[in-house]
Write a structure and sequence with these properties.
heterodimer; A: mainly beta; five-stranded mixed beta barrel; three-stranded antiparallel sheet; 1 helix; globular; B: alpha/beta; two-stranded antiparallel sheet; 12 helices; 11 strands; 17% strand
């Protein structure tokens, strides 16, 4: 079960989030930090949801995180994922703080645990974006 | 300013059908509207306020108001998922308290079983800012709730068997309901043996998918006084959203943490005072987290609470969902909040099935969780009392 076996649908790209998706095409996980209050923002947007400032700066994240929760979807996958079961849906908590909805790929689903250390990888989804997925580090 | 005692539920109607291939959405809204106003002893010409949610087709509340022939001075189309109707009882009570209307009609209708249904929440709308960062990873409805269950198990030791007891308890009630979609009682073991849909949730951890609908009529005290029908007093209401709070989602609690205390405070009662509770039961984990958040037990203790048989009518500490709930009876349009209020009304009127009627039921709670435990939700809590409470 490698990453190539689940689909990579193209996301809609908003103007505020475009730098994020451009980064994914280059294999870079970019996040925003608020210049005013230093909060790391997720998901990418045009203002800081903590203090309301419009002054955000992009930085490159480490690509490391841990599994906060996960499930193995065995039935009833939505839309383009129909037929791709079983696959892992997970929240990965990045070292920088945000918890991203994502997939854990490249392993037997039974190998995934809460607390598993993971590293980011990017799966091309058309011309404008690559999906942010994770692989077990161990 | 408070709504306590300033509005009454005079009419409540649940469509008895669970598959409705041959009616339009508008007609089902009409069927339940007529059912509820008739139950109240009123007619549509008495209605001066109308409330609907995202299940109503067309132009907010106006399309259905036109279909029904309503003349209105107040409208509301709050859309927070399946809990919208719970919130709207509070909204109607507030409008009545402010003198904006006297007879408020709330309707729900849908056909997810025979007619297909659009995905709930924002999942289908690519303009929504969160969608591009979520939908592309294949989040199924069950999968999102499953992650909440998995995390709750991790933090608190909740077990699959404890979750299964929630379904088993609902099924023990549903067997008395001739309209229930699933009428057979199931055991904890049978729930655990049902196919795994998204680990750790099995098929029987999930609610039913049914066509149908329901409606409520909320009235002013002066209208209630003139009606022969036993009315239910609105005592308290609370509502709150829970989103990911800048991408730091905590899967172990719901917005009942905020909607519940607000409702209890307005009503001036505590969880220990509640005789009957309708708890939104899209999934077993939804019920478990909600019981904790509403204060019926400590956070993390929901598994032990249900395993002791608390939910089972008529003698449990907190009889719940005595119609069989969304888990076994009805979850029309994939929105369970209307039927939660309706069964609470039945209990307070003494009109629940005799096998599951809580003796002397005079104080009840109805709670809705719209959206998903796995991402974002809108929660609403109502505290209701018997007419002379």
């Amino acid at each position: 079960m490698t990453g190539g076996e689940i689909p990579a649908p193209a996301p809609a790209v908003s103007p505020e989030a475009k730098p994020f998706w451009d980064g994914t095409l280059e294999g870079r996980l970019l996040l925003q930090r608020c210049v005013s209050c230093e909060e790391v923002v997720w998901y990418p947007r045009g203002l800081c949801p903590r203090c309301g400032s419009f002054a955000l700066e992009w930085f490159e994240a480490s690509g490391r995180g841990v599994v906060y929760s996960y499930t193995v979807i065995r039935r009833g996958a939505p839309g383009p994922y129909k037929g791709a079961e079983p696959y892992v849906l997970a929240y990965v908590e990045l070292d920088e703080g945000p918890r991203l909805l994502t997939n854990v790929v490249g392993c037997d689903p039974s190998a995934v645990q809460i607390g598993s250390e993971v590293r980011v990888e990017f799966h091309t989804a058309g011309d404008t974006a690559a999906l942010v997925r994770f692989r077990l580090s161990a | 300013m408070t709504i306590r005692g300033k509005a009454f539920i005079a009419g409540a109607f649940e469509d008895p059908r669970r598959e409705i291939p041959d009616s339009s959405l508008a007609q089902i809204h009409a069927d339940v509207a007529i059912g509820a106003v008739t139950d109240a002893g009123l007619s549509t010409s008495d209605v001066d306020a109308y409330f609907c949610a995202g299940d109503a087709p067309g132009f907010g509340p106006i399309s259905i108001a036109e279909y029904l022939g309503l003349s209105l001075r107040y409208l509301d189309s709050t859309e927070i998922g399946g809990s919208s109707y719970v919130a709207q009882v509070g909204h109607a009570a507030a409008a009545i308290t402010a003198g904006k209307c006297e007879v408020a009609l709330i309707t729900l209708a849908g056909k997810p079983r025979t007619g297909g249904a659009p995905p709930g929440g924002s999942m289908g709308d690519t303009r929504a800012p969160e969608v591009p960062f979520e939908n592309v990873y294949g989040p199924s409805t069950v999968g999102l709730y499953a992650m909440a269950a998995r995390r709750h198990m991790h933090e608190f030791g909740t077990t699959s068997a404890q979750l299964a007891e929630i379904k088993a308890a609902a099924s023990s009630h549903a067997r008395h309901n001739p309209n229930a979609f699933l009428r057979d009682e199931v055991s904890v073991e049978e729930v655990l043996e049902s196919p795994m849909v998204a680990d750790p949730l099995h098929r029987l951890d999930c609610c039913v998918i049914t066509d149908g609908g329901g409606a409520l009529v909320v009235v002013s005290p002066s209208v209630a006084r003139d009606l022969d029908r036993a009315c239910v007093k609105v005592l308290g209401h609370g509502e709150a959203p829970k989103h990911t709070r800048n991408g730091r989602i905590d899967l172990t609690y719901t917005a009942a943490r905020w909607s519940g205390p607000a409702a209890f405070a307005e009503a001036g009662v505590t969880p220990a005072d509640i005789h009957y509770a309708s708890i939104y039961d899209s999934f077993t984990i939804t019920v478990l987290e909600t019981l904790e958040d509403l204060g019926f037990c400590e956070k993390g203790a929901g598994g032990r609470f249900v395993a002791e048989g608390a939910l089972r009518a008529p003698d449990g500490r907190l009889p719940f969902n005595t119609d069989g709930g969304g888990l076994c009876n009805n979850h029309p349009a994939n929105r369970g909040g209307m039927t939660k209020v309706i069964e609470a009304v039945r209990q307070l009127r003494g009109e629940a099935n005799p096998a599951v009627q809580v003796p002397g039921c005079s104080l009840a709670l109805a709670h809705g969780t719209g959206g998903s435990l796995g991402t974002r939700m809108g929660s609403a809590t109502l505290i209701l009392g018997a007419e002379d409470a």
